[in-house]
Amino acid sequence: MELTSLTYYVAVVQEKSITKAAVKLFISKQALSHVIKKLEEELDVPLFVRTPQGVELTSAGLRFYEYAIEMGKSWKACVNDIHKTKKPHTTELRVGFGYMSYLLWSREIDEDFARLHPHISLTTVGRLSKELLVELDNNRLDAVITCMQGDQHARYEKTLIQQRPLYVLVPSDNPMASKHVITPYDLNGMKLIYSDSGARFMQEMQAFFEELGLSIQVCLTPAGNFFASLKQARDVGGVLLTNDVFRQVAPSIDGFKIIPFQHKGAGELPETRIYALSAKGAPLSSALRQFIEYFYAALLTV
Hints:
Layout: H1 3-15, H2 18-25, H3 29-43, E1 48-51, E2 54-57, H4 59-85, E3 91-98, H5 107-116, E4 120-127, H6 129-137, E5 143-146, E6 157-164, E7 166-171, E8 191-195, H7 199-211, E9 217-221, H8 226-235, E10 239-243, H9 244-249, E11 256-260, E12 272-278, H10 286-300
Parallel strand pairs: 3-4, 3-5, 8-9, 8-10
Antiparallel strand pairs: 1-2, 5-12, 6-12, 7-10, 7-11
């Protein structure tokens, strides 16, 4: 017995006519009569009494109709339940966040992204940019998010997500700590500490200072150990250049004051930029584009 046969049987009962039911079901009268006859043979009982006006149920036919209705309902419930448990097609996306950029990707942002993009299965990790690039090279990541401007980035496709303003971390006992903003001229004759992963960025900064006729010594510090950078700044009597990412994730540091670096009127100063690095020559996947667009919008609210 097939489910289709039950559906046909119910239609005949409800229409009280094989002819009318055949029209409703878009099949021939002969084909429908064959289905009904086969049901009666399987059950070994007559289901209908044929009359000039149509068909009438026998007692066995009425009982079978009740079962047919229940079996139809059970089948629909089964189909609905299976559809609910069926997992939608998902796209895997693996993104690595370098240095402090990962701190901008909070648990709340992650949950919101999952809610808005249920078709994307996102995995995120946070490590040093140079370690993440190795994983990107070995196809273990689809993209790396970094705000460090390294020479090696030329090997990848770079998608700018956002530019971030610069800040200066000044030891609290430094006279400059009383300022509300710090200009390039305030740094004349000082030592400026910055992560060595941003060596190229600091070359641009050095050229900027030289154009202004300022003497500023750049001291690079190993990436990934921010507190060692703070210690170096205090030990050499310098200040630490950082970006808006740090100001957002660590608005205060004991013994230091975070002050905006104001350069308007002094020339074109390079700002730190948050990039998404992906494989050279490969078009951005739809999932990665959606991730970048989402992260860009999320950063506007940070």
